[in-house]
Write a structure and sequence with these properties.
Blueprint (H helix, E strand, L loop, with lengths): L2 H4 E3 L5 E5 L3 E6 L2 H18 L12 H4 L9
Antiparallel strand pairs: 1-2, 2-3
């Protein structure tokens, strides 16, 4: 589905866009505002596609390489 197909106008001249799952988002005063909001939403979805890796607490590098208080250097 292209972005143009996602944006539509309903009664009273208000604009909306559809997301996956057929959810309507809006209303917007004009088509340009709806397009900007949709582009912003797409960018936020793209940012979540590659999440930051999460270390288990005990494996975190700051814990692994910390000097022990009992160890002599």
């Amino acid at each position: 589905m292209e972005m143009i197909e996602r944006i539509y106008q309903e009664n009273e001249g208000l604009w909306y866009y559809r997301t996956r799952g057929n959810h309507a988002v809006g209303p917007f005063e004009n088509k340009t505002a709806a397009e900007k909001a949709l582009k912003k939403q797409i960018r936020s979805w793209a940012g979540r596609a590659s999440p930051k890796p999460v270390w288990p607490r005990t494996w975190h590098p700051t814990r692994l390489f910390r000097r022990s208080a009992t160890r002599q250097s």
